[in-house]
Amino acid sequence: RSTGVWLAGVTNTVVRAGRFHDLDRYGVLVSATQDGVAPFRNSVVGNDIPGAELALGWDGAGADNCFSGNASVTRTAPPNIQTDYACDERPFTGEPYGPVQDDLAAALPASLADATADPPEPNRPACQKGKPGCHRH
């Protein structure tokens, strides 16, 4: 499924004057990351988003993420996002929006949520050719 721009856990980002058309999911989506880093003070303004299934979406994580003056917007999640979270209405805190949270949980592979570990250090000899103090030939 396609999304035009996804702002996951970012801060102070502006998406302005873009044209995102015929997307089968979100035009612009704002959300927390898989590990819970919340987005803060992002602005989605003056974009044209025709034909997206959901033109604008926010999972409600974070604060002061706003949406104003976007055109060709038919559906948003949450509904009325440009009225309820308009940029001239800051400051505000988001409210968790279950449908977007559920959509993200279903769309992202479970492996993204798994903890990753750094690989072990390779087994190297203590004295390596060319290393100062090493008398290896």
Top keywords for this entry?
137 residues; 3-stranded parallel sheet; 7 strands; 10% helix; 4-stranded parallel sheet; alpha/beta; single chain
Structural overview:
There is one protein chain. With 137 residues, this protein is α/β, with parallel strands linked by helices. Helix content is 10%, strand content 19%. The protein contains 2 helices and 7 strands, in the order βββββββαα. It has helices at residues 81-84, 98-107, and strands at residues 5-8, 14-16, 26-31, 43-45, 54-58, 66-68, 76-77. A 4-stranded parallel β-sheet has the order 1-3-5-7. The chain is elongated and about 75 Å long. The relative contact order is 0.16.
Summarize this entry quickly.
The protein is an alpha/beta fold. Helices cover 10% and strands 19% of the residues. The chain is elongated and about 75 Å long.
Helical segment count: 2
Low-confidence stretches: none
Class derived from helix and strand content: alpha/beta
Distance between the termini: 58 Å
Strand order of the largest sheet: 1-3-5-7
What's the pLDDT, averaged over the residues? 89
Q: What is the helix fraction of residues, given as a range?
A: 10-25%
Oligomer: single chain
Please tally the β strands and state the result: 7
Q: Tell me the strand percentage band.
A: 15-25%
Overall spatial form:
elongated
What kind of sheet is the major sheet? 4 strands, parallel
Succession of helices and strands: EEEEEEEHH
Gyration radius over CA: 22 Å
